[in-house]
Each structure stands twice: as C-alpha cells, then as structure tokens.
Amino acid sequence: MFKRIIYQCAGVACLSLTLSACKTPSVVERTVNTPVPASYNSSQDTTNTAQLQWKEYFTDPYLSALIDTALQHNQELNITLQEIEIAKNEVRDKKGEYLPSVGVRGAAGVDKVARYTNIGAMEATTDIKPEKEMPEPLPDFLVGLYANWEVDIWHKLHNAKKAAVARYLSSVEGRNFMVTNLISEIANSYYELLALDNQLAIVKQNIEIQSNALETVKLQKQAAMVTELAVRKFEAELLSTQSLQYEIEQRIIETENEINFLVGRYPQPVQRSAESFVDLPVEKIQAGVPSQLLQNRPDIKQAELDLAAAKLDVKVARARFYPSVGITAGIGFQAFNPSYLIKSPESLLYSLAGDLTAPLINRNAIKATYYSANAKQLQAVFNYERTVLNAYVEVANQLSKMDKLEKSYDLKSRQVEALTQSISISNDLFRSARADYMEVLLTQRDALESKFELIETKMQQMGAKVNIYRALGGGWQ
C-alpha cells in the first residue's frame, strides 16, 4: 500500500513536470514574400546567358588564363574553402550527438581506510577468515565498457544536425557566389587595363600632334605671324598632356597589381590582348525570365539555405523546453587482485539507468535562446526577400545600362570622328591665318577629351557585359 502511494506520487510529479516543461512561448510566424515579375520586358524567352560556362563567355585567352590562375591561388577563395571544411565537420559533430556514445575504461588504484571511521570500524569488527581477509591497503582494478545515449524523442538533436547540413550547403553556395564575384572582378580590371592602354596610346598620339603644332607656332613667331603668348600657350598644353601620360602609366601599374593580387601572385606585368579595345564586340545578352534567378544566383540559394537552418534552430530551441530522456549503461570487471578480474560472476559488474529531466523554474536562459532563434529566423526571412529583390534590380539595371550605352557609344563615335577631322581643319586654317591659336588649342583639347570619353564608354560597355553575366548568376558552374 505504501509503495503504491509512492509510485502514484512519483507519477503525478513526472506528469506535472512534463506539463510545466511543455509550456513554450509562441512562435513568431512570417510568410516569405518573394513574388518576382514574369519577365524583365515583354519577352518570355527562357534562353539564359548565365547557363554558359565562363570560358565560353570570356573568350580572350589572356583573360581566361588569369581567371584559371585566380581560381587556384586566390587567398580569399582558399579561405572560403576551409570554411566549407569547418561546416562539414560541424555536420559530423551534430550527427555524433544523437548517436550513442560508447567508450572503454580502465582504472587502477589503492585505498587505505582510516580505522576510526565508520567503514574502518565496520571492517575491524567483521569476522572474516584469515584466508578471506581483504588486503590493507586495498588495491582496486577495473576494466569495462560504458555507454551514454540521449533519446531524441523531440528531434532536438536530429534538427540540429539538419541545420548544420543546411549551413554546410550554404557555405558551398557562398563559395560559388565568391567565384562569380572573383571572375567579374578580374574581367572588369582586365578591361580597365585595356582601356588604359588605349588612353595611353591616344595621349602619345596627341603629344606628337601638339609637338608638331608647337614647332609650327615657333616658326610662325619667327615670321612675326604670332606672338610669344601663342608659343607659351601651345607649350603649356603640351606639358599638360605629357603629365597626363605619367598619370595613366601609374594607373596601369596599379590596375596590373590589382589583377596580380586577385590571382594570388606578386607584382609583375600582365599579359593582355593587343587587339583594339574599341573594336571588342559586345554580344547580345539573353536574360531569360526572372524566376530563373532563384536557381542561377548562388547568393539567393545561400539565403534560402540560411533560412531553412534558422527555422530548424527555432525547433531545436523549442525542444529545450521539453523533458530530455537519457540512458546510461556500463559493464566490466572489478577486483582487488588482477587475477580475480577474469572470474565471473564474482568480479562482474554492470549498470543500467535512465533519467528524465526537464526545466521547471528559472527558464530565462532557455527562453532567451528561443527568442533569439525566432529573431534570427525573421532576419533570415528578410534577408532572403532582400536578396531576391536585389538580384532582380541588378539585372534590370544592367539590361537598361547596356541598351543606353550602346546608343551613347554610337553618338560618341561620331563625335570623335568629327573632332578628329576638325584638328586638321583648324591646323590648316591657323597656317593660313584664318583661325587663331586658341581655336586650335580648344579643338585639340576637345578631340582628346572626346576620345577619352569614347574609351570610357567602351569600358562601361565591357563592364556591363561582365556585370550582367554576374547578375544573372553565371560564372560559378
């Protein structure tokens, strides 16, 4: 009767413990809202340039060689690869947590009990035959196996492992996104280098033209056709252009070293195409449909996996409010003499125990973890929505930019052609005294600026070609 009462009280206590532990705060729910437009324009063509591998998209052999080298030696990319390994080991760690833990144990020791203690007094008063009496001090030898296992009834450990897997896959997508950005950075710097080469060539041509003009003005001064002021003006203009040459040469060195840094090597000359920069083709881009961004863009897939991991973290944090069940077991042999260790069942020992624990009072730490997991889940939702929106905006901007730059380049080409012709015209008029020297100087300056602007526009065109490929999610395949 007394035992029954004890069992009933224990059952009520366990039930109340379980019920109190199961009271968890509510989850903050928010649905992911990422509707994307059906198309970028009226076209519904699903052909997508992002499906091309980067070697098919960037056909310049020198640029391809630079990208190949960077994918092997870029330090930041190699750091990311090690982060992937760390994430992979996190998966192994979480997987091991919900599997039983089994170990082996061996021990040896000696124990001398004081006579005037309860144990010592009992041993002194116990009538033991001389051949059976325990040695003093008492040796102790133990060998055995032990096991621990937390029964994952609420899937806390299983969900933690799934969250680790999601973060591992997220780190892989992060690496893919870094590859895409690395390729675009190298391509943009390479085209900038070609543009600087062309600007340097234009400056050198202009220096030659201005030097010839300066000699002409000096001859005209000797013939009293112009004053010293005209000579000084032409000379100042020539010096300004010569100074510009060194500025461009310095920018070339800096751009080369930027490329060298990206490919993971020390400063050295960068081999590049000798083809005329202004003649580089800008192929028509097939953007496909916006929904393809969800599959092509590594940053979107990374944000999606981070969101999945954050949701699992909420489940893990919620499970901490529930009771946890653990099982411990052990089996082995123990004796005060090594020769007795193999005797069974006298030296055999074993244990099996289960325990049920649940938080009851002062659960602030668990609540704080749970609320933080909810907040991080909402952050992941907003980050995913922002990433999708940003991807669409990037593509829309680059498509518009390519269209506008094409029209601008056509107009600037005509402007350069007109101003180039005006240089010869102004020089002829100046020689025949039908134009003053200021008109010649302004014409030369305008022609130089227009050629620079044409090169800048071409560089922007090539940059848009690179950036639209990156925006569409190309480069990492």
Labels describing this entry:
477 residues, Outer membrane efflux proteins (OEP), 63% helix
Note down, in words, how this protein is organized:
It holds the Pfam family OEP. This protein has 477 residues and is of the alpha+beta class. The chain has one domain (35-98, 152-323, 358-471): Outer membrane efflux proteins (OEP) (Up-down Bundle). It is built from 11 helices and 4 strands; from the N terminus they run ααααβαβααααββαα. A 4-stranded antiparallel beta sheet has the order 1-2-3-4, with no helix packed on it. Helix 4 (75-97) packs antiparallel against helix 6, helix 6 (156-222) packs antiparallel against helix 7 (228-262) and helix 10 (364-431) packs antiparallel against helix 11 (437-471).
Quick description:
The protein is α+β, with helices and mostly antiparallel strands and 477 residues long. It contains eleven helices and four strands, in the order H-H-H-H-E-H-E-H-H-H-H-E-E-H-H.
